[in-house]
Structures are given as C-alpha cells and as structure tokens.
Amino acid sequence: MTLPPGFDKDRQSIVYALEEEKFEEAWSQLISSYDVHNNPWLTSMYNIKEKWAWCYVKNACKLGMRSTQLSESVNADVKRCTTPNLNINEFFTTFDKVVSEKRDKELKLEFDSRQKIPRMVNQSAPILRQLVLTYTPNAFDIFQAQWDLQFSVMLIQRDEEGPLYIYIAHMIDEEGEWRIEFKPDTHEISCTCRMFETTRILCCHALKVYESNDVRIMPEQYIIKRWTREARSGVVYDVRGSEIQRDPKLEIT
To answer: Which among 47, 102, 138, 219 could bridge 187 via Cys, Cβ 3.0 to 4.6 Å?
Structure first.
C-alpha cells in the first residue's frame, strides 16, 4: 500500500525521539494526521518498533554496530573481487581470499592494539592514563571523545534519595535533558541516554557526574573486556555456547 506524500519524512523526524512517551504520542499524531490507521505495513512496522525507534533500540546492546553493518561489509568485499561469469570453483577461491584478507587485517589490528599507545588529549587526567593502557586504540578514542564532551555538560539539578544522587544534565547549545543516577558508595551510575547499555562505554553525562564527585579512576564494573586489549585472551565461545578453537597458524603469524 502506497504511503501518502510526506509521510516518510515526518516519520523519520520521530525515529530519534529520546523518550518512549514522546515517541508514542508523536506516532499517534502522525497516524491520525495522515489517516493511515488501516495500513498493514505501518502496523507491522509499529509492532517491531524495538528494532528501529531509538527510544527502544537504546535498551539493546549493539556495541556501536548496525544490524546490517557486518553483512554489508562482507558483501562489499566479495563484490569487489568477483564477476558474474565466475564458475563455482573460482567463486570459492575468491571467497577464501577475501576471508584471508579479513583475518590478516584483524591480526594487524590486534598487533597495533597491543604495541601502540593512542594519543591522550590530556596527559594528566588519571582516568585517561588508566584506560589508555587498558582499552584498544579504537575503544579508547570513543571513550576519550566522551571524556572531552563532558566539558559541554551542565549539571543543573541534584537531588538525594537516600544513598542515591539524582542529577539532571543539559548539553551546551543542544536540546534535551538527561537524568543520571549515581551511588557514591559503590560508584554505580546510569544515564537515560543509555550509551553504556548500547555500546558498553560510559557517556559524557555520567563522566561529568564522576568528575563532580571526584571519581578519578574508572570502576572495574564499567570496563568491559570486549573493549580491552585482552579481549581475545581466555576461552571464547560462539553463539551456541561451544568453545571456539583457535587457529595455531594465526597465532604464530
């Protein structure tokens, strides 16, 4: 069923609504204004809103990857070195070459993460000195960007509810506000932006609260092994729970 002109543009404008209540209100207004209550495609899209509406997606751990990103990368590499007139044997020979190239690239990144130290924007910050030796270079760059952004965060309100501190934060020259909950005794922290839940790296709002409470070292519970230089150490399991056997040739390389 064809959608009315302008509907998709208006739908895109509410995809990144920060709160579930605001998204639901905006979606209802959108459906009513275009009178598309009986559109089966829109009904099916709404039923899987957890897969595309940011206020729901931010509750899932994605580690910064889109759902199709991995397949898009593989498809692009295969298309780069294949042609329609290849027979089946030639295709698999080329496919093996693509896989080998990806493994070589992974080994190089593994070597770089163990041998190279990223550049720190602030050499005297204890938390940066701690994590530059812990995180992989790419993970450290993501964290360092959030650490730098904290200087644009304003804590405009603080309430105390027993052992819990509740902050309301704004960003300079940006709309929206975020609620951060912090326990001073355990250093547990959470933010409504849900960056840690989706990427496993703390957001600038949480780091601002840490800074205001003199938390200078990252608590261990917020250092996820997946982003450390030791991510490949120990036993690794696949999605079925089976142990992945390492390739001795790769280890020697």
So the answer is: 219
